[in-house]
Amino acid sequence: MRFLIILNLALLLGLTPAHAKLTVLACEPEWASLVAELGGAQVSVSSATHARQDPHHIEARPSLLAQARRADLLVCTGAELEAGWLPLLQRESGNPAIQVGTPGYFEAAAFVTLLDKPQPGQHLAGHVHTAGNPHLHLNPHNLVPIARALSQRLQQLDPTQAAFYREKGTDFLARWQAAISKWEQQAAPLRGRNVVVQHGSLAYLLRWIGLQVVADLEPIPGVEPSVNHLTSLASSLRPGAAIAILRTPYQAARPAEWLASRSQIPVHVLPYTVGGNTAAKDLFGLFDSSLRVLTAP
Amino acid sequence: MSTLSYSACRPRSGQRPSTLLLALSTAMASSLCIAPALAGGHTITPEVSFTLQALYADMAAGERHISGFLPEGHAHGCNPEKLCLDHSEFGLAANLTPTLRASGSVIFVDAEDKGEVEELWLQQVGVLPGVSLKAGRFLSELGYANSQHPHARDFVGSSLMNSVLSGSHLIHDGVQMKWLAPTERFVEVNAELAKKSDNSPKAWSLGAHLGDDLGTSHAWRAGLTYLHAKPVNRAGHVDDSNEVEAHTTFTGTSKTWVADVLWKWAPDGNSKERHLKLQAEYFHRTQDGQLTCEDNRADNGACIGTTSAFRSKQSGGYAQAVYQFMPRWQVGVRYERLDSGTLDFSLPIELATYKPSRHSVMLNFSPSEMSNLRLQYNRDTSMQGAPDDQWLLQYVQSFGAHGAHRF
Questions:
Q1: pTM reported for the whole predicted model
Q2: Is B6-400 CATH 3.40.50.10310?
Q3: Which of A35, A189, A198, B259 is the most exposed place for a label (fewest CB within 10 A)?
């Protein structure tokens, strides 16, 4: 009887024996997709956010805390992208396994070089990430070192399945490298062309493809497009000055469409992450779809 | 949220300061020796923040009180027709180890022209799975708004409910335990034990909260907390029957129940463009003990220093809605009502039964993520016979590391 009570108490406190599956919480859908590629049937993964949410503006709401509480591994971008909610999510979850500095917290930004890192002493106007631009998943080359490190992390956390994770990792990287070659051929005609953007959300994708940013709808990073700024853009942008105005699914449609109607430059909505449109079902679909949108006549 | 961070010049990880003061002095020492932060690494990164809060109030002159209730705890106010910097805050926090965090903040109390340590605590996450322990001085988890920092509130000033319960917000010197259940739905239990509390030398509380999503656009949280306090000579001041100010002290037992509900809506879960926040809290409190009215005959008062048995059963609450109708712009309405309930005592003081209420509307504009400009109108009938139309203009500007705000 006493044993049963202790067992019940242990279950209640979550002191259950090692799970058959590793429970992974990803901060963004791109990392959930990568975990699914690398962990297959051995992991149970969910994403804290979806493509129609701005990853800067999330709240550590109760349902997310409940998920973080049960996670064995938290996979996030880092580089301050989640600074407004992730520290709170980790702390309030009461889960010691997923805190910064433990193996249960994986930060993708630690394995790549970030773009647009402010120079020391540079005046930081508006919403500038001091660590650099965190929207790093949109250069497919960045996924290579991140996938390697993440596969190693899965092996470390679940050593009994290490061989399985290694095999999945090798298989993914082979398919990924082949896909990169294909995408780079598709993107070649875009090199050197001009685009208008909103925020630095697509910077890695554009830099990889070789597209030039001629204007930003945001007057200062993180500050909403203002009427004044849009008006001045409309008067300075001639038709043909850019091949497209690009935005993500989580950014408002109106500013981009208003500028499109004045400048005769078409708006393209890029998926930004997995789930951003119906074709972007996984990481491969994300880049397939992005290139299809950009190369559409 | 943009943050500025600095790391200590020398790595200090691995230290496990045993006391709060040592922890905070470590963090402060680190902050004096600042260098640009490097991503990753094992240095402690102190988060330094400063929040400037400026308020201009156009309200009736003279001290206001909430009729039918004995004043509680610490309240700092802003004089009418005067610009004040009340509750401007300087904060310092650091993760000392992956699971040990130290945090402290000092607020500026304008009315007394001094600083006050608002919070100073150590928190250990995951003492047991799902269990966090906090020790030191902290804001109590009583209800919802009590643990919000003033600059994170949606309206200027405390609610009438929080004012009668603790002056502005309940602060404990003690320990807090929180346990999050390993369930799909959010279930959190918290317990607090205070050696010294805002309004009494001993207090404990027990509370539970549930929460979840409803579809992709709705999220909610609701809870119930019980607070048991043993005030000893808790000071208050009221008018006596000669309309002279009288000082009172209360010793006894105070039992308070607080229920809180929070509901948030954002289309598709993306709160950046538009969102709605509904929030309501209700309390019921019984007090049982001795009330003394200090001798004020020298000022032609009616009190002669006698002590009387004192019993009260009181309740009240508020409901508010805040709607962001476009990025950077929010409107809000709030309705508050208290009931002085039954008051049982025999002293010559003015503590009539009354139902204080207040209606507020506010318009908030955020020039940037780090600042707010808020205009608020109150129709305040919380003081019997002295209704007041109040206009408040508040400016909040944050600098440095700005911690995430809670749900």
A1: 0.88
A2: no
A3: A189
Cβ separation B182–A70 shorter than 8 A:
yes
What are A262-269's contacts with CB under 8 Å, separation 24+?
A262/A234, A263/A233, A263/A234, A263/A237, A263/A238, A263/A239, A264/A239, A264/A240, A265/A196, A265/A237, A265/A239, A265/A240, A265/A241, A268/A244, A268/A293, A268/A294, A268/A296, A269/A293
Contact residues on chain A for B97, CB-CB shorter than 8 A: 101
**Which residues, other chains included, contact A297 with Cβ-Cβ below 8 Å and sequence gap of 6+?**
none
**A117 at the B interface (CB within 8 A)?**
no
Tally helices (H) and strands (E) across chain B: 2, 20
DSSP secondary-structure letter at B151? Answer: G
Residue A77 near chain B (CB below 8 Å): no
Pick the residue from chain A with its C-alpha nearest to B370: A126
Of all residues in chain B, the one with the smallest CA distance to A100 is B98
Q: Distance (Å) from the C-alpha of residue A230 to the closest C-alpha of chain B?
A: 16
CB B180 to CB A66 under 8 A?
yes
Q: Does A268 touch chain B (CB under 8 A)?
A: no
- Determine the number of helices (DSSP H) and then strands (DSSP E) in chain A: 10, 8
Lowest mean pLDDT among A108-117, B48-57, B190-199: B190-199
Hey, what domains does chain A have and what are their CATH numbers? 13-181 (3.40.50.1980), 188-295 (3.40.50.1980)
Name the packing angle between helices A143-157 and A29-39 (round to 10°): 60
B270: nearest CB among A15, A85, A250: A250
What element of type H or E holds A10? helix A2-12
Report CA-CA distances (Å) from B157 to A136, A275, B170, B367.
42, 42, 14, 21
Q: What is the ipTM of this complex?
A: 0.87
Give B65-107 pLDDT, tens digit per residue: 899 998 775 555 666 667 888 889 999 999 999 999 999 999 9
As given in the structure block, the two tokens for residue A191 are 């090199």
Tell me the pairing of strands B171-180 and A194-197.
unpaired
Q: Please give, rounded to a whole number of angstroms, the shortest distance from the CA of B352 to a CA of chain A.
A: 42
B186 with A65: Cβ contact below 8 A = yes
